[in-house]
Amino acid sequence: MSILYDLVSENELEDAHRIESRGYPEDEAGSLETFKYRQSQAPELFLGAFLPGPDDTGRSLIGFVCSTLSPDTTLTHESMSKHVPGSKSVCIHSVCVAPEHRRKHVALDLLKEYVRRLEETGQYDRILLIAHEELRPLYEKAGFEFVGRSAVVHGARPWFEMRKDLSSTGSAPPSNPSGQAQGQALPAGLWEALERSSRRTGPVARLLTSFPHAVKEVIDSDSSGGSPTNKYDLLCPRLSCGSVILKAGVAQWVERASVQLEPSGSTFPDCLGALPAPPATAQWWLVTPNAMVFENIGFSRPVQTAGGTKLKLLACAECDLGPLGWSEEGGSQFWLACNRVGYRA
Q1: Is residue 180 included in any domain, yes or no?
Q2: Quick one: which of 132, 159, 129, 155 has its CA closest to 144?
Q3: CB distance 252 to 234 below 8 Å
Q4: pLDDT tens string 44-64
Q5: CA separation for the pair 123, 100 (Å, rounded)
Q6: Enclosing domain of residue 61
Q7: How remote is the C-alpha of 26 from its chain's centroid?
Q8: Mean of the per-residue pLDDT values of the chain
Q9: Is residue 172 part of a domain?
Q10: What is the pLDDT, as a whole number, of residue 225?
Q11: Which of 8, 130, 137, 254 lies 20 to 30 Å from 285, alpha-carbon distance?
């Protein structure tokens, strides 16, 4: 079973709520309004497990994890009821999988992916959750430690708190920064400001599969040039990056023959959609007349195809994720695969 991990969009909240209603007793399940609050306040913490539809035309939600942030280091009614932006504790509210997909390691794999993404951002110190006793082994397999019985009362059964401390990606100020004379102090607050800047994250990218009508929802057919253009800024699809690659309205949407961008059988991150084998067609963003119109793009060394043409593969210049597309060596046309970029929607 091939599972795609991506953020749950606003129009998928009813699907998530249906899964929750089937998975929790009535006195424990969250309301749809609660789901809307969590997703609106912390969309980057609402991760879903999806089964991709045929030909990348849609997807089906089969499980999710959703959280909010709190400055507290333990779970209380208050920390579970409101979101405090910029806090270091990720408070998980729900880990839920549709009944027909349980006992297939979906929950465990989803939790591991969730933890990996949180650690990759470097923004958080810990993850907190409460669970019933019988689910303790699941969370321990995902790296959580048992804390003890929780004071939180929600429903008729007791809850137990579990915790996972996240790997720190920060660094301490150097004792003698390069080029600084001994005894010369940094201006007050400068290092802290630089640290805050280094932890700043880019916009959250939506993958093409998160749009119910796929490419139809990301093209602007009313553009002044006549040809459909990209309705949204195009972003690096990696959640921890989100760097802007191209501004809205710059690229033209084109359906043309697919191009093999990697060797057959290669594996690549979930955020990079699969391309059909040539000569089948694929959806592309055509960028012209030169690379200067990009906000951020990287190029590989020329790669010679079986037909003798030399291509350069395109990648995110910030995190090197790719290939996102291609261009002919020395050419003036640059092609980004519609399902290999994110959308700032």
Answers
A1: no
A2: 129
A3: no
A4: 999 999 998 876 568 999 999
A5: 35
A6: 4-165
A7: 30
A8: 85
A9: no
A10: 62
A11: 8
For 100-143, write each residue's pLDDT tens digit.
999 889 999 999 999 999 999 999 999 999 999 899 999 999 99
* CA-closest candidate to residue 140, choices 160, 157, 119: 160
Considering the domain architecture, whether residues 155 and 267 belong to the same structural domain is answered as no
235's tokens: 């972003």
Rg from Cα positions in the chain: 23
Starting from the edge strand earliest in sequence, which strands make up the sheet with 59-70, in order?
Answer: 4-7, 46-52, 59-70, 89-97, 126-131, 160-165, 145-149
d(CA 106, CA 265): 24
3-class DSSP state for residue 55?
A: helix
CA distance 1 to 55: 16
With 50 as the cut, is the pLDDT of residue 198 above it?
no
pLDDT for 170? 42
pTM: predicted TM-score of the whole model, two decimal places: 0.54
Q: Classify residue 151: in a domain, yes or no.
A: yes
